[in-house]
Amino acid sequence: MAPAPCLHLQEGSRFGYRVGLPWNRRPHCLVEIPDPVQAHPGLHLLVAPNGSGKTTFLRTLAGLIPPLAGAVTLQAQVHYFADELRADPEMKPLTFFRSWFKGDSLASVEKLANSLRLDLKCPIGKLSRGNRQKVLLIMAEVKAAQSSASLLLMDEPLTGLDAETREQVTQLWAETRSSTVRLVVMHELECVRQADSLFTIVRGKLRHATERTGSTWMDTYHTLQQS
Ligand SMILES: Nc1ncnc2c1ncn2[C@@H]1O[C@H](COP(=O)(O)OP(=O)(O)OP(=O)(O)O)[C@@H](O)[C@H]1O
């Protein structure tokens, strides 16, 4: 059996970007890791103010940007989902999914699309923002289910979704908590009832709470931000 997926961040790691001309690149740190971090299968939320470095953090975990210092160790198959679907606007979601999946996986796509009320035959360019987001969400779920050790990195996946769909999606995440490490950037915590931890960025440092400090994760977020 494959080992359970896990994300490990080394203490002292620094995430950000480099500025300047190629022969004089200077690091600009956005997120520093003051304590070692481990994330195991479950739903992990990343909530922090605009511009604090969430996307940069996620892209570094995905291997798209090198860390400025330290290391990211992933014992998992990593899938990164940006905040917007980038695909040919003429293409239908069904064609898009057929290029990725077949057999049982394609059947799962159709089942999920049906339950989320996504028209698989409407060209992507004609779908509303929320419906385009459903394409990404379905992609993420079916990809994660294909491996027993998946790490899903999702950047604001609930943006544009109506209240009912948000409920459905967060319920689905709760049901798959035991098999997938899911790190989700979001701003609206009201729809999340069950989560395993919350990450935030306070004055350029990553903070991680594995227990709620109040009755909701929003309370925990405010506590961390004020610490
Ligand atoms: N390669 C780069 N060169 C210059 N600036 C950058 C680069 N990458 C990120 N930044 C800046 O770093 C800051 C943090 O960006 P990032 O997108 O990671 O924040 P965020 O927390 O995801 O923001 P939001 O909540 O608004 O999506 C922004 O001001 C952004 O413009």
UniProtKB/TrEMBL annotation:
Q: Does the keyword Cell inner membrane apply?
A: no
SMART domains attached to this UniProt entry = AAA
InterPro entries in UniProt = AAA+_ATPase, ABC_transporter-like_ATP-bd, P-loop_NTPase
Q: What keyword terms does UniProt attach to this protein?
A: ATP-binding, Nucleotide-binding
Q: Does the keyword Zinc-finger apply?
A: no
One Pfam match: ABC_tran
Domain ABC transporter residue range list: 7-222
Q: Which GO terms describe its molecular function?
A: ATP binding; ATP hydrolysis activity
In terms of Gene3D superfamilies, this protein maps to: P-loop containing nucleotide triphosphate hydrolases
The record's section on PANTHER family has:
SKFA PEPTIDE EXPORT ATP-BINDING PROTEIN SKFE
Q: Which protein are we looking at?
A: Iron complex transport system ATP-binding protein
Q: Which organism is it from?
A: Prosthecobacter debontii
What broad taxonomic lineage does this protein's source fall under?
A: Bacteria, Pseudomonadati, Verrucomicrobiota, Verrucomicrobiia, Verrucomicrobiales
